[in-house]
Amino acid sequence: MTFELKILGSASATPTAGRHPTAQVLTVGSSNYLIDCGEGTQWQMLEYRVRPHHMRAIFISHLHGDHYFGLFGLLGTMHLQGRTQPLCIIGPPGLDEVLVTQARVSSMQLGFAMTFVVVDTEAHAAVYEDENVTVASLPMRHRIPCAGYLFAEKPRRANLLKEKLPPGLSPAQLARLAQGEDLEADDQTPAVRHADVSVPAPPPRRYAFFSDTLYTPGLASLIHGADLLYHEATFLEELRDRAAQTHHSTARQAAQLAHDADVKRLLLGHFSSRYKALDPLLSEAQAVFPTAELATEGLVVSL
């Protein structure tokens, strides 16, 4: 099953040519999950062929504009395109008030239902679940309430091996085997042990999204061993004091957390507009976590 992250925006508060405010899409199976929605996100969705119709849920980290100013416009487009399926929006306190107020003053009556899940940004707790994933909040330390999110794929079923299946099994028997059951012998077929005709499914995949935050070493234990970590890296280490003042992290700090959490891959993003070239940020991170990558627009990571 697909488990794929697509980067739509990598900039911090001020967009630059070629860099857009934070937005990402995680695709699991046939469902899309939008993570943050900075200004212009729907244009980026057009650019990178992300279909709003397939959006299952939207996760907003905090209410600084570069992380959610594109949301109301996207909802309006979904309405104009005839969306009818419900949409779940997960975010910090106040997000529902903002969207309801915008809809009221603009007399917009959406053609689909919205469910709001208010996140306790100081807790690590479950906030969303469907048949594909469970999602837990991660407490960020920023200037206003802010949450990251840990997406965990639900365990997949073992794969049946066609060449090991005895002939003559009915669809019902195949379905039982697919569910992990053993089959008892009957007049037509011998007994079949599920373990003898299957291979274990690959381990579930996990993606951790760290939004704007001070460097917080204690978060490493919450995501230990994750397949992929996105961590903001707004500044170089030479501006570490500036990072602390603005409640952000440096590239080196992001890499250190990835190292301590023993994650498999690290993406850096949320770059300050002062950096026209990003190679120095990447080099700084790779000195600690050699396989670090830049989460620039259009990047696709498949796990």
Question: What distinguishing features does this structure have?
Answer:
303 residues; alpha/beta; Metallo-beta-lactamase, Chain A; 7-stranded mixed beta sheet; globular
Report what the structure shows.
- The protein is α/β, with parallel strands linked by helices.
- The protein folds into two domains: 3-155 and 205-302, 4-Layer Sandwich (Metallo-beta-lactamase, Chain A), CATH 3.60.15; 159-199, no CATH class.
- The protein has seven helices and 16 strands.
- Strands 6-5-4-3-2-1-16 form a seven-stranded mixed beta sheet. The protein has a seven-stranded mixed beta sheet with strand order 7-8-9-12-13-14-15, covered by helices on one side. A two-stranded antiparallel ribbon has the order 10-11.
- A hairpin with a 7-residue loop joins β8 and β9 (147-153).
- α6 runs parallel beside α7.
- It is globular and about 75 Å long.
